[in-house]
Design goal:
Blueprint (H helix, E strand, L loop, with lengths): L6 E7 L1 E2 L11 E2 L6 H15 L7 E9 L7 H14 L1 E12 L8 H8 L3 E7 L3 H6 L6 H13 L5 E7 L6 H13 L4 E6 L7 H4 L8 H17 L3 E4 L2 E3 L6 H7 L3 E5 L4 E6 L4 E6 L4 H9 L9 E2 L5 H9 L6 E2 H8 L7 H9 L3 E4 L2 E4 L1 H5 L1 H6 L22
Length: about 400
Amino acid sequence: MLTTPPLALYVHFPWCVRKCPYCDFNSYALRGELAEETYIEALLRDLESQAPQLAGRALISVFLGGGTPSLFSPAAIGRVLALVGRLFECDPELEITLEANPGTIERGRFAEYRDAGVTRVSLGAQSFEPERLEALGRIHSPADTCRAAAELHAAGLDNFNLDLMYALPGQDVRSALADIERAIALEPAHVSHYELTLEPGTLFGAMPPPNLPDDEAVAQMLGVCQDKLADAGFAQYEVSAYARAGRIARHNANYWSFGDYVGVGAGAHGKLSLASEKRIVRTAQPREPRRYLSAMTAGATLPPPQLPIAPAELPFEFMLNALRLTSGFETELFETRTGLSWAALAATIAELGERGLLSCEAGRWRTTPHGAKFLNDVLVCFLPATPSGRVAVTRKVLSSPV
């Protein structure tokens, strides 16, 4: 039976100082001055339009993502969070994460973001080697990241994440491990460690950079980095996420357990479970900032249309998220988050078990070590078939962390 899961809020800020060549997120290089006031007013109208349909549901987390939200002033962020507090019931342990680029933070401002309501920060370090940062098109230096981490500690925001990438142009195993060691030395609570992928529609997708490491080197990088993180007290709980005890990201964990989320801002997506109607819907705002701003200023602002997810697509949608978790999931979670019977997956699950890709231990299903290496192949097995009998691949199967 479909039940109502925890609810999160995602707020999108679409601008960056410069678009990175590997990035396939909905972000745009800033041209001219930031239209802070105009965009914040649009976000407030967006929030007000969507809140009524969520009456009585408590938020467990807020994620301010981008783009680069830290381009916006603490006062602007505070206005958004203040309205969130007025419109929504909030969990006493509400987690509010701000994504930040080390190159766009002025010294001392993290204390102001904390005062505005931010409780957690995700810092886009990516690497601590200048050559790697230059190859990635990043605008910050290793020193910027170190200063930002020091400011976070000084502001009392010790619950922060460092984003790191590996398999970078010109990188070897030694330099990948050195990045992890530099990150650990800054004492974050959480590390996101993900492989550089050449996504379609990006500059790197069209023109791959030279000197990319081979598959054997990439596997070695991952192995030694995982060991180093484990030795330092960071437990891996998701494909690319590692946390100290008690510091798992509540917002992302909600995504991966197929929880609900409201999407506010240009290109923001939402997913809502309407238990009384026995259906799950998605929402999406216009991607391009000018179109989004126009929609938010054209008379009475309406919530985005709700597009039902077909029941045949729900097994894949669920597994796309839940199989990323190292702890796996129980069958009850699948049934309550999708409204489907676990028996409907019996044949697929049995086949994957026979192939050594899935296992069940203590009532929890997860990929085996072998299955984790071939997660894309596992996930494809849950896609609905077309009338011709072929599997319908309708979206990118495995991407970077949310």
